[in-house]
Design goal:
Two copies of one chain form a homodimer. The first copy, chain A, has helices at residues 11-23, 28-39, 43-55, 76-88, 93-106, 111-125, and strands at 59-64, 67-72. Chain A has 148 residues and is mostly helical. Chain A has a domain at 1-90: Arc Repressor Mutant, subunit A (Orthogonal Bundle), CATH 1.10.10.10. Chain A has a two-stranded antiparallel sheet with strand order 1-2. In chain A, helix 1 crosses helix 2, helix 1 (11-23) crosses helix 3 (43-55) and helix 2 packs across helix 3 (43-55). The N and C termini of chain A lie far apart (49 Å). At the A-B interface, helix 1, helix 2, helix 4, helix 5 and helix 6 of A face helix 1, helix 2, helix 4, helix 5 and helix 6 of B. The structure holds a DNA duplex (30 and 30 nucleotides).
Chain lengths: 148, 148
DNA sequence: GATTAAAGTTTACGTTTGTAAACGATTCGT
DNA sequence: ACGAATCGTTTACAAACGTAAACTTTAATC
């Protein structure tokens, strides 16, 4: 064991990660600047989060001179997808389609996005089911509450 | 001020909320039972979360005899959408379409879901933009990192 | 070469969360 | 009517988080 990436970051740490992902490689100075701007954080605050992310195994350090350049151990895309998966673990499988439909109708989409989405849906048709099975524990979703 | 619903619950509290949403009105006994099953929580643990949710203004109490029946102040749908909105605040607007496409390709969808999604997309076409504007702070996404 | 500036590490401390037992009031069974 | 079972409330306590100053080491400046 040791440096296993645990894929669980807080909202504040996520802010730091975004700066790192945006840059690929970045100094603490740059991270501190960006987040002082956006979040109003004191340098010390950002330093704490950077340190915790290194400990959590989310950030790698490359020695540049005697300072560090930070980089992400996990890609932003991978991370976002993982987190979204986590999110949907709170929602009944039956509801996922509807939920996404709602998000989509609120989102700003480009023609290209729409084309991509339609493509995905077209492909999905081939593996679509008649009824999505509920994956919830009894008593935790409408599909299987036992009323009395 | 006083009972403003703050719409922010922890993962554990979310488990409680799901039981309440599933039942509409429910006793603590029932909540405790379901979560003892699913989470292996001791009754005291569940009681704590129920109490905190009442304090947070997420749960209402109806007096039934001298016990309570709990009900949610916010609908599950509303809550999920709100939380998803929160989630996407961590992602550049430009990426939202692609991200949703990825989730969709992993999800189990029914024919009905797909039809609904296609309908939504069809409607979206009319308001689609050529290029989704980036909504990120400089230095926090690829759209506007200033390399040097 | 001594002073200062910068960067990483330690320490600090209040709040929130996870986990639960203890307590107090009440109701129900006998 | 008395003891037992319930249910809500209080108290407890460690770990995680948000926020940040202090300290240490190293590098750069004069």
């Amino acid at each position: 064991m040791g440096t296993e990436t645990d894929f669980k970051v807080t909202d504040s740490e996520w802010e730091v990660m975004r700066v790192v992902w945006a840059h690929g490689q970045v100094s603490s100075k740059e991270i501190i600047n960006v987040l002082e701007q956006k979040m109003g954080w004191k340098p010390g605050t950002t330093k704490t989060f950077i340190g915790r992310l290194v400990t959590k195994g989310m950030l790698d350090t490359q020695t540049e001179g005697r300072r560090y350049l930070y980089s992400a151990k996990v890609s932003e895309n991978k991370f976002v997808r993982h987190s979204l998966g986590d999110f949907f673990s709170h929602v009944c499988n039956k509801e996922v389609g509807k939920t996404i439909a709602e998000v989509l109708s609120e989102a700003t989409l480009s023609h290209q996005d729409i084309a991509l989405l339609q493509e995905v849906l077209e492909a999905k048709k081939k593996v679509a089911v008649d009824v999505v099975p509920c994956n919830c524990v009894p008593g935790q979703c409408h599909c299987n509450v036992h009323h009395h």
